[in-house]
C-alpha cells in the first residue's frame, strides 16, 4: 500500500507524549482516527478534527496505518491480539507501528502474527520526553522489515528528527533498552551533581551553565537538571514508566548474560521513590532521595 498525505492514521495512546505526537501528525496534514480508553484525554484532538472510534478494532479497520504508544507490555498485548485486537481487524496491506517502550520478544511476536494477517509491522519506540514529542524532535528507533520502514518513514519523520532503522523485528526495542540503560545511571549522576553543587554553596544554575557543555553534557543534564533546581517534578516521563522500562532492560540483559550493576542500582532507587508516593512524578523527582 503506497502511503500519501491522504493516508488515514489510527492513533492509540494520548498520554503525555502521544497527545503531542498525534497533534503533529494532524499539523502535517494527515487524517487521524483516535481511540483511547479515556475519551476525555482526546478531546483537544477531536476538536481539531480527529475522528473518534469506539474500539481498537474499529480504528484498525478504518486506518491505513495504526500507531500505538501506551503504558505497559500488557496494554500492547491487549490491543494487538485476540478477535477484538488490531491485528485481527486491520486491513491487509496496512501498517502497524508500536511506539510503546515494550519487550523485544513481544515486538517479534507482533511481527509474526502481523505477517499471518498480511500486515506490515514495526516496533519504533521513542526517546526525547514531552519536549521532543511537542517539538517533533524525538529520537525514533525502528525495527522490522526495511521495506516497511521506508514506506512509513515520512510519517516517522513528522514525529522525530533522529529516525534510525536498527534491523529486524525487536531491534527497535533492543535499541530503546540501550537508551534506557544509559539514562538509568546518568540520572544518578545528575542528581548527585546538583546536590553536591548546592551543598557546596554554589549557584546550581551557574554550575549547570559550566558543566552542561563539557564532557559531562547529556540530555538529562540539560533538560531535567533545570527542573530539579526549580523543584518542578511534573512528568515529561513518568517514574512508573521508567521503572517498567528498566525492568524490561534488566530482564533482557539477564537473558543475554550481561552484568548491569548501574541499571540495578537505578532501578532500586526509582522503586524506593515510587514507594514514597512519586510514581506519577517525572523522572527528575529522583533528586528527592538525595536531598
UniProtKB/TrEMBL annotation:
GO molecular function, one term: NADP binding
SUPFAM superfamilies, per the entry: 6-phosphogluconate dehydrogenase C-terminal domain-like, NAD(P)-binding Rossmann-fold domains
Xref: Pfam families: NAD_binding_11 (PF14833), NAD_binding_2 (PF03446)
Residue ranges of domain 6-phosphogluconate dehydrogenase NADP-binding in the record: 9-167
Keywords for this protein: NAD, Oxidoreductase
Residues of the active site: 176
Domain of life: Bacteria
Sequence ranges assigned to domain 3-hydroxyisobutyrate dehydrogenase-like NAD-binding in this UniProt record: 170-289
Family: Belongs to the HIBADH-related family.
Identification of the protein by name: 3-hydroxyisobutyrate dehydrogenase
Species of provenance: Sediminibacillus albus
Amino acid at each position: 500500500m503506497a502511503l500519501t498525505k491522504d493516508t488515514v492514521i489510527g492513533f492509540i495512546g494520548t498520554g503525555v507524549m502521544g497527545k503531542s505526537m498525534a497533534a503533529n501528525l494532524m499539523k502535517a496534514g494527515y487524517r487521524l482516527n483516535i481511540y483511547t480508553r479515556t475519551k476525555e484525554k482526546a478531546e483537544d484532538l477531536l476538536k481539531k478534527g480527529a475522528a473518534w472510534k469506539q474500539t481498537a478494532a474499529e480504528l484498525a479497520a478504518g486506518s491505513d496505518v495504526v500507531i500505538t504508544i501506551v503504558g505497559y507490555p500488557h496494554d500492547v498485548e491487549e490491543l494487538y491480539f485476540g478477535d477484538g485486537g488490531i491485528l485481527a481487524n486491520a486491513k491487509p496491506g496496512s501498517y502497524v507501528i508500536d511506539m510503546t517502550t515494550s519487550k523485544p520478544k513481544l515486538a517479534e511476536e507482533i511481527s509474526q502474527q502481523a505477517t499471518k494477517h498480511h500486515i506490515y509491522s514495526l516496533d519504533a519506540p521513542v526517546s526525547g520526553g514531552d519536549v521532543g514529542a511537542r517539538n517533533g524532535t524525538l529520537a525514533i528507533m525502528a525495527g522490522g522489515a526495511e521495506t516497511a520502514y521506508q514506506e512509513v518513514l515520512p510519517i516517522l519523520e513528522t514525529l522525530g528528527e533522529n529516525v534510525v532503522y536498527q534491523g529486524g523485528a525487536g531491534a527497535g526495542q533492543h535499541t530503546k533498552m540501550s537508551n534506557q540503560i544509559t539514562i538509568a545511571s546518568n540520572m544518578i549522576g545528575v542528581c548527585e551533581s546538583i546536590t553536591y553543587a548546592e551543598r557546596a554553596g554554589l549557584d546550581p544554575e551557574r554550575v549547570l551553565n559550566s558543566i552542561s557543555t563539557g564532557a559531562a553534557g547529556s540530555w538529562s543534564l540539560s533538560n531535567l537538571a533545570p527542573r530539579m533546581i526549580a523543584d518542578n517534578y511534573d512528568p515529561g516521563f513518568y517514574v512508573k514508566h521508567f521503572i517498567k522500562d528498566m525492568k524490561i532492560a534488566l530482564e533482557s540483559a539477564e537473558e543475554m548474560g550481561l552484568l548491569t550493576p548501574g541499571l540495578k542500582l537505578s532501578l532500586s532507587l526509582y522503586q524506593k521513590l515510587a514507594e514514597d508516593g512519586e510514581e506519577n512524578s517525572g523522572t527528575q523527582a529522583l533528586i528527592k532521595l538525595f536531598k
